[in-house]
Amino acid sequence: MIHHTLSVLAEAPYETTGLQHGYTGQTLYVNVGEGRIAAKPVSANMRETFIGGRGFDLWLLWHGVRDSTQWDDPENEIVIASGPCGGTTQYPGSGKSIAAAISPLTGVPIDSNAGGHFGPYLKFAGWDAIEVQGIAQQEVIILINAPAGKIQILAAPDDCPTNTHLLGHWLNEQLAETEKDRELMAFVSAGHGSEHTLMGCLNFSLYDRKRKDLRYKQAGRGGIGTVLRHKHVRALVVRTHPFGGDANRPADLKRIARTGAEMNREVTRWDPAQNRMRSRGTSYLVQIMDDYDLLPVKNFQCGSHPETPKINGEIWEKRYTQNMPDGCWFGCTLACAHAVDNYKLQTGPYAGSCVIVDGPEYETIAGVGSNCGIFEPAAILEINFYCDTYGIDTISFGTGMAFVMECYEAGVLTKEMTGGLDLAFGNAESALAVLHQMAEGEGFGKIFGQGIRRMKTIFAETCGVDRQFLDDIGMEAKGLEYSEYVTKESLAQQGGYGLANKGPQHDEAWLIFMDQVNNQLPTFEDKAEALHYFPMWRTWFGLCGFCKLPWNDVVDPKNATTDEPAKIPYHVANYVEIYNGVTGAEATADDLIRMSERVYNFQRIFNIRMGHGLRDHDAIPYRSMGPVTEAEYASRRERYDQQLIDWLRLDPATMTVKEKLAQHRAYRTEQYEKLIDAVYARRGWTSQGVPTLQTVRDLGIDYPEVLEVIRKHL
Q: What's the predicted TM-score (pTM) here?
């Protein structure tokens, strides 16, 4: 490999202000179009109101864009932050980075989180966040070089690869002189596929000391990778100083260590007996979801399949290379971030190469696997790898491919329209062919890469098909493809998806077990309360730099003896301790929820400012409520017939299937509308989903520009 002296297009020296209690006190602004680099102070108001992470992202993005900004405008920004607790090594799951931008898929702010080392390293290098604005005139690399004390915008030479697995090795060869340099460097990239689709993902690197190689975690949702490549940014790179367990300069290190040691003992004791995350990662969920009829199969038509054992956690545990612990941040005893080493690729431009495949995680297995009727581990690994290196979100790809496959089997699409591809459920070869086309912006892949919402319009206009059918089975809301859970029998989870600010993503509210399996939310008020508390709590993780898995995937049985075991109160107490230990605050659990309410309502208002965010934007596809087709009804006829008896006092024996479907639709749709009413009331919003003036005043976010947005809709 040629070693380049990289051309410097712009440069600025800097001095770290000194990390104190989880904050550096400054954020980094880089405009790649103008070659401008600047530091911005973190005001007391910004820190107290928006906390960090997702909060800082949204605050900076709000001030960077106009009301009319589109995703591909120069002023759209990519903002990445960790949060005050990000980079903590004493408590599991403390290495998250949160990225935000105006989404190509939804047109509103999207936030997406990832593991890896970039967010913590960025903070250790002196910055609470980075915002990237403008469109470069040529391909560039942004280098934050803490040891050298400078920020550089570098010209990417012609031989600099785009696809992430090659780019990572290239960056290491060009920028790292020693093994230690590689350990202290992290980067964010998006591959060639992000250039030709709207569902591009960001890859966050981590240097795996055991493998002596790079691995990647994804901020997959909403097309932020597409924004990065549109800006002609090849990579964001950070080099930090050597650091230890006190890198955050916490207010009370002993307090953190004490709480972390207790949680680490809990993980070690209970994970092997509960979910085996340390050996199976999130793949443990596959069989559980199948057992409870919640695993998406063939575009969410069904919730289970007899071939699920071919792709369940047991299979992946055998395939993962078990170099335990195998986490995405230092000190995480949950260590769920597994990988498959030396996988030999069978297709595409790298066929014959042996690579590391990071994962697959549950969402990928369910999305590109069962939801597409694919129960072949090798095919799932192949799709997983290429999605990652091309920079394509596996969730949007899997859910989008499931939609296309159902359209093909229903006769909406023909081989003439797909370029000769047989896109029947289970055809992994054709799915991979579309994926490779997406990377090049060619063939049917060019259409597919626009996402489900735009495909529905294209198919309706070119195929003469009933648009209602496409809307019913196209599993997207707000323009974002669904993550991988069947919600037909969980009204609360329907709300968890439909009422999420960013679109249907499970990291905001995952209530299926509470609602459907355990029947803990029998009334609309119960569901509304859950759809207040849990999204607020999960929002808080994104403010502070935490992963949600240690919170609810390993649970000491002592929580069951409390008044509200579903809230996992002992873990709530842990997070209160960690936050106070880092920041020096003395916040309560209620204070933490209040932090989230401010940011969550601000994000809702941000959506409204961008022309979305009202009640009609909280609509969901009917398949997430109930059965769409007669075949779908027949697959669960006994259940659906009994529901007609129990809910509506109807006699199914006297009804046609079409009549049964109509009665289900009317009832289930009405229930969802009632749920919306209850949730809006609990959140302090109007009947159209607008936070009231009183709500924003009570939360202390009644800034003039916020009030201006609200008043237009009251």
A: 0.97
CA-only gyration radius of the chain, Å = 24
Q: DSSP character for 501?
A: S
> Quick one: pLDDT at residue 531?
96
User: Nearest 5 degrees, angle CA 130-CA 107-CA 597?
Assistant: 65
Distance, in Å, from the CA atom of 709 to the CA atom of 62, rounded to the nearest integer, reads: 12
For residue 509, pLDDT over 90 is answered with no
Contact in structure between 135 and 146 (CB atoms under 8 Å): no
The CA-CA-CA angle for residues 670, 473, 685, to 5°, reads: 40
Residues with Cβ within 8 Å of residue 152, at least 6 apart in sequence: 8, 10, 11, 142, 143, 145
Would you state the structure tokens that stand for residue 213, as one six-digit string? 């190689």
Residue 470 CA to its chain's centroid (Å): 25
Residues 648-696 pLDDT 10s = 999 999 999 999 999 999 999 999 999 999 999 999 999 999 999 999 9
Q: In whole angstroms, what is the distance from residue 350 CA to residue 432 CA?
A: 13
DSSP class per residue in 100-159:
EEE-TTTSSEEEEEE-SSHHHHHHHTT-SEEEEES--SS-EEEEEETTTTEEEEEEPPTT
Largest interatomic CA distance in the chain? 79
Kindly indicate the confidence band of residue 327, based on its pLDDT and cuts at 50, 70 and 90: confident
208-212: which pairs have CB atoms within 8 A and are 24 or more residues apart? Answer: 209/183, 210/323, 211/323, 211/339, 211/341, 211/356, 212/179
Q: Are 297 and 371 in contact (CB under 8 A)?
A: yes
All structural domains of the chain = 8-239 (3.60.9.10), 275-481 (1.10.569.10), 491-554+588-711 (1.10.599.10)
C-alpha separations of 150 from 81, 143, 188, 238, 561 in Å: 19, 8, 18, 11, 54
| Dist. CA 359–CA 220, nearest whole Å | 14
Where does 231-332 have alpha helices with state H? 253-274, 277-280, 285-291, 313-319
Tally Cβ neighbours within 10 Å of residue 704: 6
Percent residues over pLDDT 70 in the chain: 99
